[in-house]
Fold this sequence. Notes:
The protein has 187 residues and is mostly helical. The protein has two domains: 3-80, no CATH class; 88-169, GMP Synthetase, Chain A, domain 3 (2-Layer Sandwich), CATH 3.30.300.130. It has helices at 3-21, 26-55, 58-70, 72-80, 88-105, 135-149, 169-186; strands spanning 108-116, 119-126, 155-159. The longest helix has 30 residues, at 26-55. The model is unreliable at 162-182 (pLDDT under 50).
Amino acid sequence: MNNGEFQAHTEQIERLVQRVNGLADEDARGTALDLLQSLMDLHGAVMSRIVEVLSDSGDSGRNALAKLGNDPLVTGLLVLYGVHPVPLEDRVARAIEKVAPQLRKQGGSAELLGISDAVVRVKINRSGNGCGSSPDALKQTVDQAILEAAPDVAQIVAEGAPSSDFVPLNMIQPAAKEEKKYEESAA
């Protein structure tokens, strides 16, 4: 299963839960929601036990757990059940480190400023003079890397990158001079 298929399944589950919540029959709605909660509780207990067993299994178990924690499909499940072995801050920092070479190729860089209440603040810098990617492209690269590693992030706030409609002052000045000449000749 790839990320797209996983996302499709997740969206289907959300649609079905909404349909259950909309059932007019309170007994049927309550039963369906209880069933869903029981399955979630069971799966959560199993996920927690898997993490515990691997953590207690020496280096090979911890290495396997680390691989699972880095897998984009498994990461979402570990986060869902609150048993991801790597703290959010570490996952975000690793994601930024992992994408750094790609950002450099795009003419930029990113720096983690901090995380508070699942809101990630990053500083995105552009280097060079216009030969790299737009600020929006750099932000999209950073956002994608962070959300893949840490789907529990609620928001990513990028600081330091000018908006994509930024126009350097030297590009505006000639037009302003022409406008002034027009105003003078009209007077």
